[in-house]
Amino acid sequence: MATLNHVLDAIERHLDFPRSRSTGIARRLQEADLLPSGAPGVAPDLDPDNVLDLVITLASDTELHTAVDAVRAYHAMTPGGVNLDGAPQSIPNAPIAVAILVEDARTGVAEARKSRVAVSCNWRAVAIHKPDGSVVRKRSFSPI
Predict the structure, then answer these.
(1) How sure is the predictor about 144, in pLDDT bands with cuts at 50, 70 and 90?
(2) Residues 6+ apart with CB under 8 A from 63
């Protein structure tokens, strides 16, 4: 676990997202109970999933007032945008697929370390580009 301030510093240092922008996005996510708020005088601790939510929101280049919707859409992204209600839990949604990729990269899996994650706010989609040229896409379910 890392404090929000440490996470925001790391995001600015390693991913080049301005601290002012990430602070505003984090505040919006806290107001919507999508990130922990901490307590008076106690900085909130973020788990790895919280950090990914924050980074994905920043990467989607969403406007401040749509940040909460962007995270909720990210959590609803599925393979091909299909409805997974009643489907086996073994079918990963976007947060699970990205978390697995990040964990593999952290443990030194070469393919994961060379993969790229592309985020689209307008299309409400995440694409994981693998070094072999394959692409895994997740997008929001939209009923017809």
Answers:
(1) very low
(2) none
